[in-house]
Amino acid sequence: MRMTFRWYGKKDDKITLQQIQQIPGMDGIVGALFDVPVGEVWPLEDLLSIKEDANKYNLDFKDIESINVHEDIKLGLPSRDKYIENYIISLRNAAKAGIKVVCYNFMPIFDWTRTDLALPLYDGSTALAYDYRLIAGKSPQDMAREILDNSNGFVLPGWEPDRLEELSKLFEQYEGMDEDRLRKNLEYFLKAVVPVAEECNIKMGIHPDDPPISVFGLPRIVKNEEDLDKIVNMVDSESNGLTICTGSLGSNLKNDIPHIIRKFGAKKRIAFMHVRNIQVHEPWVFNEVAHKSKHGSLDMFEIMKALYDVDFDGPIRPDHGRMIWNEEGRPGYGLYDRALGANYLCGLWDSINRIYGAK
Ligand code: DNO
Ligand code: MN
Fold first, then answer.
1. Which pathway does this polypeptide act in (predicted)?
2. Burial class of residue 21, CB neighbours in 10 A (0-12, 13-18, 19+)
3. Residue 31: nearest ligand to its CA?
4. Does domain 2-356 have CATH number 3.20.20.150?
5. Which listed site, 63, 137, 336, 355, has its alpha carbon 20 to 30 Å from 234?
């Protein structure tokens, strides 16, 4: 297993590679090219330059999050073939730069969605939160404005102001799109890219929908075990893998995460693990918490034990953290709480290996 930390790059992340290197047990960074518009080719030299920077601090760069999928692919438009071709070139470049895992998602229009980016918790920290009652009856534009007001200028991915201007057009394009059609479009994409990923020795890992429920009436197809089954069956290859994000899937308590890990881990379909805890108050009302089990609804020991049982040897990262110790910056992606989270996961992992035997 390699312990990793998501990094937004020299230009956009105030967290330095040196700081990441100083987190005990850290093996590598998870990076991306944030300046390349969605659908364009990722240049090899830009990937190599991240790798070179990371390696200077004894950190690997073997995992990408995410090469985003162009909206025309999700919509199944004729123009998708050109974007798929570009995706394939990006995958080949990634392989040349030593990348082993590529995370992506297939959520229409938006990436992950929250109704509050700085919910105050009992201890003075703040966390990301979701409450379906705050979304009901609102347009995405209203939501975006509300979120912008309390987020220090940061926006959720997919909610950038220039994108919001074209939102009505995007929603029109999705009219009549149901889960089955969206699934067909995913299958078309996977049938084209997975053979290339396989040839390049890369595992693709689809990220669950976050939250795993339809938002603003848009279809979502990565919500539960049944959805994951359908996806792994679309192309029979270990390169057609999953990112198991415990905080995303876990916001529906019906999703039994240790069981899901055992099932898809046994089939070697887990490409990437995002491990974080959340407190679920009632269906679709939840907030993120510290990683430790006692603070939330998920049993982190059981999650790590399931990974041990299936000999998981891919990348794992702490996911969103709270803002603590007066840290300011990108909601969910501060240094301190994620570093604590990583350390807690390392502690669990070490203990499990000591008790049940190192493999
Ligand atoms: C949420 C985060 C997301 C994720 C992307 C994957 O749980 O991990 O930002 O990175 O949706 O494409
Ligand atoms: Mn995640």
1. Carbohydrate metabolism; pentose and glucuronate interconversion
2. middle
3. 1
4. yes
5. 63
The domain locations on the chain are: 2-356
Any ligand 1 atom below 6 A from CB of 86: no
Residue 284 binned pLDDT confidence (cut-offs 50, 70, 90): very high
Residue 207 Cα to ligand 1 midpoint, Å, equals: 7
Residue 89 pLDDT > 90: yes
Atom of ligand 1 nearest to the CA of 66: 12
Which residue out of 13, 63, 116, 319 is catalytically annotated? 319
Adjacency order of strands within the sheet including 285-288: 116-120, 126-131, 285-288, 278-282
pTM check: above 0.90: yes
pLDDT digits (tens, 9 = 90+) for 195-239: 999 999 999 999 999 999 998 899 999 999 999 999 999 999 999
- Answer whether 60 contacts ligand 1 (Cβ < 6 A): no
DSSP 323: B
The contacts of residue 345 (CB under 8 Å, 6+ apart) are 3, 275, 291, 300, 304, 316, 318
**C-beta of residue 59 within 8 angstroms of C-beta of residue 20:** yes
What tokens does 111 get?
Answer: 């990436």
